[in-house]
Amino acid sequence: MIVDVIISICLVVGGIFGIVGSYGLIKLQDTMQRLHAPTKATTLGVGGVLVASMLYFLFKEDTYTFHELLISAFLFLTAPITAHFMAKTHIRMRELRSTLPETQRKHGWSLYDTPPEMLTDTPADEVESLESR
Fold first, then answer.
1. What does pTM read for this prediction?
2. Which of 35, 57, 59, 70 is the 20 to 30 A CA-CA neighbour of 88?
3. What are phi and psi of 96, to 5 degrees?
4. What is the mean pLDDT of residues 17-34?
5. In whole angstroms, what is the distance from residue 7 CA to residue 13 CA?
């Protein structure tokens, strides 16, 4: 009985997050705002459903399923990376360097400014020999 309640709570919470994320995707106006809905709320919604599935199979079917854990790990790793690439593409296509605020650092925006020289522990002659290979 308690397990059924916990599984139901996970499904309901996951469903609420999914609905909120879908609603945010539709209602938010700007592309940068719309990135938050699928990467935050919908990811938590799918995570809640996957946790409920893991609990169901563990307590009701007496089997441990590893698939849901792998799906959750893949989802929680790839959603922020995808959103980051989408945001960088949006900035590159829609924003001019002059319209972006200052970064308050000495190097500026990585999309527009030349990256700083990398500091390495390898002597310069070894780097040249590695590059010539």
1. 0.68
2. 70
3. -95, 155
4. 87
5. 10
